[in-house]
Amino acid sequence: MKNKELFAIFGNPVKHSRSPLMHNHVFKQLHYNACYTRIHLEDGTKLKETFFEQKLSGANITVPHKEAAYKACDEVRGFAKKIGVVNTLINENGRLIGYNTDADGFLFAIEEFENIQKVLIIGAGGTAKALSMKLQDAGLKVSVLNRSKGNLEYFKTGGFETFSWDNCPLDTYDLVVNTTSAGLSDENYPAPLELLRPLLQKCSYAADAIYGKITPFLKLCKDLDITYKDGADMLLGQGVLANNYFTKEKFSLQEIKKQMQKSFEF
Ligand code: NDP
Hints:
The chain is α/β, with parallel strands linked by helices.
């Protein structure tokens, strides 16, 4: 019998991650001989050696190592190549292959939001890159707001309108998305309240990439009576696509989604 395959999620922090629960449930229900664990990683440059030391077949990467994951790859495929951000790794005969499933996961998550044309992305990290590029490719007008100006350079080069806290106009957006890690393990807003509140007051929809808790951003959306969602559907969307790579397309996306969705009931 073939040895059990081992998968993991790398991150810092990583203990909040639901990925082990989601993937293990799919492996079990679809009788795929594999197990998925978490690895707390401080230093992103140690990603590749840790991956091979642990004899992993594949992995997911979360905050803050997605750009380090891109650098660690022997080959990057698809959309990940365009944005330089990898959230899924596959061991292909000893070579590290990188993909990005976050952006398509997010598109899946906002399917039910109607008439979205103008989007404000808050944050300028790996998730912001994935989402903004994907939305721009889909023909939407995307602006990016971030705490530090330095990290906005990538977006300026990519033709996005960019703002920092001191020069952001109070424009009207159809959708405002928090892709920062503010609120993940603290109680911070992703931007000062005097800026965030009027921006949210004028928008139709809001989404947070963070899942599993009502972040201060989501609490504000709730108080302002905006239609919002947390990052759970995005998590599901990216997880289904990652699992499809892990299981080498042995199962349909529908089969994986059906099982993975059930793990959210636990
Ligand atoms: P990165 O580390 O690449 O980027 C973090 C971003 O957050 C930076 O723009 C940083 O700003 C900003 N930031 C951090 N702290 C604060 C703060 N206190 N106030 C304002 N801005 C802040 O992270 P990722 O892009 O990889 O992930 C971001 C979030 O998205 C995480 O919470 C992660 O869990 C979540 N996520 C969820 C997914 C899902 O499936 N639901 C998938 C992917 C990510 P600066 O540039 O100034 O440092």
